[in-house]
Amino acid sequence: MSEERATAASGQAEAVSLLVDCDTGIDDALALAYLCSLPNVDLVAVSSTPGNVDAEQVARNNLALLELCGRPGVPVAIGARAPLRIPLVTTPETHGPFGIGYAELPEPHGQIQAVDAVELWIEAARSRPGELTALLTAPLTNFALALRAEPMLPELLRGVVIMGGSYFYQGNTTPTAEWNTHVDPDAAAEVFAAFSGLPEERLPVVCALESTERIELRPEHVAALAARAGCEEPELVAPEQTEGRRSRASNELVRHLSDMLRFYFEFHRRNGQGYAAHVHDYFAASVAVGTARYRTRTATVHVETASPKLIGTTVADFRGLWGEPPNARIVVENHPAEAFDELVRSVGGLGRRLDA
User: Fold this and answer.
1) Radius of gyration over alpha carbons of the chain, in Å?
2) DSSP code string of 28-89
3) What is the pLDDT averaged over residues 165-172?
4) Beta carbons within 8 Å of 71's beta carbon, 6+ residues apart
5) What number is the average pLDDT over the span 318-345?
6) pTM of the complete model beyond 0.90
7) What is the mean pLDDT of residues 150-167?
8) Strand stretches in the chain, DSSP E
């Protein structure tokens, strides 16, 4: 049965402590900027998983973004360098050779943590049982390794939010598979298996393509974000403009985000999806911090790991036909207009504060 999930109003400030795992990535970058814009969000650690780019580049992106967004002290770590059992495939055509489109972020001053990301996560979860929420917007490699090392992680964490999979919906990598689960299907299978049979409130909230592709960012959202940040001139990103045009926005954060998003718009247009960008990971981030309204249904998720043409395919049994206990709560309803009002308000506000 569907049920309404937590809906924190934008103005509320309940403290949220996050462990973030990402493969930054343009939509990951927007999600990180959003998290940094929320004063009530404590970023305990950001781990870097290979996916959109290799793990070292992901970590550099994370360090640079956190510093750009005024969070220079957040620990950034690397865990796995490749999926559990299959070769790594990256997406320069989707996110650019460095994962951040046309943006050229300042070289970060901070250093990648010497400790492995998996060790960092486990130590944090053990030291703060019941306090930390895991936000997973990358292939699930690092989280699978963490569950191997600490099987009690589902009980130690306050909650888990996953961006990945597709159910009753076309994939975005193969006809049936979403990118994150396709990159490391074995890890995804292990993660869902680890939650099998747990109480419903312990099951991960899964933001799959049918919910995240509804969060379709358009040029008018970039313009509104720039205006909220106090840019001196309108920020116009338009389909008739030359590809690769660089932003000259007066606000540094807006300038870099605009350069990322232009690349993403162009990619989506080349693939017949219009001059827009599906910002999957921003929606997952808003779920993790409680600023999104959404509904979920419990299901038993299977991830295909063997069939060559179906590898990474996720199948959800909502009706209990397999006779197996649920292992996920899949988002089945969300509210895009509210999501973009929140994004513009909060990230635009961050840009304005950073300039001040």
Assistant:
1) 19
2) HHHHHHHHHT-TTEEEEEEEE-SSSS-HHHHHHHHHHHHHHTT-TTS-EEE--SS-SSS---
3) 95
4) 36, 43
5) 98
6) yes
7) 97
8) 3-4, 16-22, 41-48, 76-78, 132-136, 159-163, 205-207, 216-217, 277-278, 294-303, 314-317, 328-334
